[in-house]
Design brief:
Structural class: mainly alpha
Distance between the termini: 140 Å
Number of helices: 8
Radius of gyration: 58 Å
Order of helices and strands: HHHHHHHH
Number of strands: 0
């Protein structure tokens, strides 16, 4: 508001609700009663409670409870480990691994095809044989049939090499 109009105000601007002063005394008295109730303690403690409180707390704190221990080697873990070890032991003791390959059950054709198709040189074959097996007597005693020799010459040797 402007200063020049302050002296012209005829009303104060504050209003009280209707019947406010009729119930004012009752409101003040009820507030005092609430205040009295608030000052009274609402809870009661047992007799000699605070005398024995310190001893009760110390007794509960000093009780040592055994910590919960989880065993590393429990019965369940030992059973799992032993069953895995037994399975591995059984796998290695099976007769599957004892079967060693032998040349007795191989067909001659299979061996010949392998030697021809794998480009094995004669030096590699000779390195597998001992000196006793490479003697000239072993080759002289073996009799070749004429038909086998002829088939070999016709299949493997060209005529230009013979001329």
């Amino acid at each position: 508001m402007k200063k020049n109009k302050i002296h012209n105000i005829k009303e104060n601007g504050f209003k009280t609700p209707e019947g406010y002063f009729n119930s004012l005394e009752n409101n003040i008295m009820s507030g005092l009663k609430l205040k009295e109730l608030a000052t009274k303690p609402g809870f009661n403690t047992p007799n000699n409670y605070f005398d024995a409180l310190e001893n009760n707390i110390l007794d509960k704190v000093s009780e040592e409870k055994a910590p919960k221990v989880i065993q590393l080697f429990s019965r369940k873990n030992i059973i799992y480990a032993s069953s895995i070890a037994a399975a591995i032991l059984l796998l290695f003791n099976l007769s599957i691994f004892e079967n060693k390959p032998s040349f007795d059950n191989l067909d001659n054709e299979t061996v010949e095809n392998y030697i021809l198709n794998e480009n094995i040189e004669t030096y590699e074959i000779a390195s597998l044989l001992s000196d006793d097996e490479l003697t000239e007597e072993n080759f002289l005693e073996f009799n070749f049939e004429e038909e086998t020799v002829e088939n070999y010459i016709l299949d493997n040797i060209e005529l230009e090499d013979l001329y």
